[in-house]
Amino acid sequence: MREVWRVGVCSRCKRALFTSGGVDANGLVAGVVAGWKRWRMWVVGMVGVACFIAGLVPLLAPAVFAAAMLLANFVIIRQPLRWLRPGRRICTRISLKVLLAGLTVVNLILTVLVYPIFGVAQLTAAVLSSLLALAYVEAALRLISSGLRREAARTPLQVWEWLPPVLLLGACFLFVVVVSAAAGGFFWLLFEVEIPDISTLVDWFGEEAPP
User: Fold this and answer.
1) Residue 103 pLDDT > 70, yes or no?
2) What is the dihedral of CA 142, 82, 101, 115, to 10 degrees?
3) Which of 63, 78, 122, 181 has the most C-beta neighbours closer than 10 Å?
4) pTM for this one?
């Protein structure tokens, strides 16, 4: 892949490896997109059925959704992603990971909110996971296709391509640090600070009450 995009000649046949506009970016991803269109309804349906069954167990449906999307990354998205040069490929991967994490969090929150509603939670988990799976794969293929067009035009990596994923990744890291610190502080207070029981509070209020 590296030899295809570099400027120069092939080490074997001595022909030019790349000229601007010489690569059909749409053609590179056309086969993958066509395959996705053929299998789209089957994949979305299987995700929906799996999440419907997993909806019987609390918080299992979002985990099944995340696992299915990781599998989609390996089977569907990985192939055209390899055609991007290292810098743009890394930024695209970060963007996709942040997108998947965000969709998983949304799935988790909505699943938790509807879980107490008996008879609705499973159906909601199935429909929601199917829609999010469709949105994720479609967004991933569009992002990769756009990157391939810029590669074909020899457009260097722009600030607007790497800055958003870096900021989002930093925000995710900061969120994890803040949540971890808050959880650590809570458990420290729980185990280290002496919390008065009910009888102590009653005695204290009785002593403070005027005669």
Assistant:
1) yes
2) 80
3) 122
4) 0.71
